[in-house]
Specification:
Blueprint (H helix, E strand, L loop, with lengths): L21 E3 L5 E3 L7 E2 L19 H15 L4 E2 L11 E4 L2 H4 L15 H13 L23 E3 L5 H10 L2 H9 L2 E3 L7 E3 L9 E5 H15 L14 H7 L3 H7 L3 H4 L1 H20 L3 E3 L1
Parallel strand pairs: 7-9
Antiparallel strand pairs: 1-2, 3-4, 5-6, 5-10, 7-10, 8-9
Length: 292
């Protein structure tokens, strides 16, 4: 299936289009030039959306995580290379969580690499009960890693996120933009409003829980806006399938064979696909998705 872009025009952008880092796509979808593969990204870049021409926008989880990762890399004496290799333990990942970890009530669970999410699970269920909803207790157990099985989700946030944030501003309302960008935990529950818990998560002082059905709907809209060729992109994400497809795989060749808005900024297309697949996986498997 291909997400068509006909009839979906971007809202007027607040960015100064004289900026050479911004281009206006011919069919109305505004995109931001991302660093070319091999380009050293400024590790000290500010973590606010004022860098994107969006000074009044929300401070997103994805931007926070990328910039914080770059700053940590700078302290280690190195930089972050756009389109670089993927070493486990370095950078930010989006991963599925199994029951064993979700219900593990370890201390400072969301902050500890080897901890669990018991405090988040308890806080979520308490808020669900307050809203008159059933608790979220059916989480699948840990499974063996079998690439292509669709039983796990693990992708690395390697590409630049700035074009994706810009696309969200152009295509979504302010409330919708905040919803898709600010969550830190995704659950397979329909939530009309996100749940924010005073529990630290990756690079933030709180945990924002969003419903996968709502994120899926927004990701599908973004996919239509850029004409994403969904049927040509990996459907499962067990072991960096999307990361490798976009950065080291056939993405460039596919973009040349099926030209469109999606292929003009593959970094942005990566994040559209990432959130689309994350929401689909959460709903299909009934599991949480978190940043790690």
């Amino acid at each position: 299936m291909e997400f068509g872009s006909a009839g979906l025009m971007a809202e007027p952008a607040s960015v100064d289009h004289a900026d050479p880092g911004v281009r206006q796509a011919t069919d109305g979808v505004r995109m931001v030039h991302a660093p070319a593969p091999g380009t050293l990204v400024d590790a000290g870049r500010a973590a606010t959306l004022s860098d994107l021409g969006a000074s009044d926008g929300p401070r997103t989880a994805a931007v926070n995580q990328q910039v914080d990762s770059r700053r940590r890399s700078a302290k280690r004496g190195g930089g972050v290379v756009s389109g670089g290799r993927y070493v486990r333990g370095m950078g930010i990942y989006l991963v599925s969580v199994a029951a064993e970890e979700w219900f593990d009530a370890g201390e400072d669970a969301a902050e500890e690499e080897d901890g669990g999410f018991g405090a988040v699970a308890s806080g979520l269920n308490e808020e669900l009960r307050r809203r008159g909803l059933p608790p979220y207790e059916s989480v699948p157990a840990e499974t063996e890693l079998v690439r292509g099985s669709g039983l796990r989700f693990q992708e690395k946030l390697v590409p630049s996120v700035y074009g994706f944030v810009d696309l969200c501003r152009a295509q979504l309302s302010r409330e919708e933009e905040k919803r898709i960008l600010d969550w830190s935990v995704l659950v397979p529950i329909s939530l009309d409003e996100e749940i924010e818990l005073p529990i630290g998560s990756v690079n933030t002082n709180s945990t924002v829980i969003a419903g996968a059905p709502q994120i899926l709907a927004l990701a599908e809209r973004l996919a239509r806006a850029i004409g994403l060729p969904d049927d040509r992109i990996p459907a499962t994400c067990d072991n960096l399938d999307l990361t490798m497809w976009f950065l080291d795989g056939p993405a460039k060749e596919e973009a040349a064979a099926r030209p469109g808005v999606w292929g003009r900024d593959l970094d942005t297309a990566f994040y559209v696909t990432l959130y689309l697949r994350a929401a689909q996986h959460s709903l299909r498997r009934g599991c949480p998705i978190v940043y790690s």
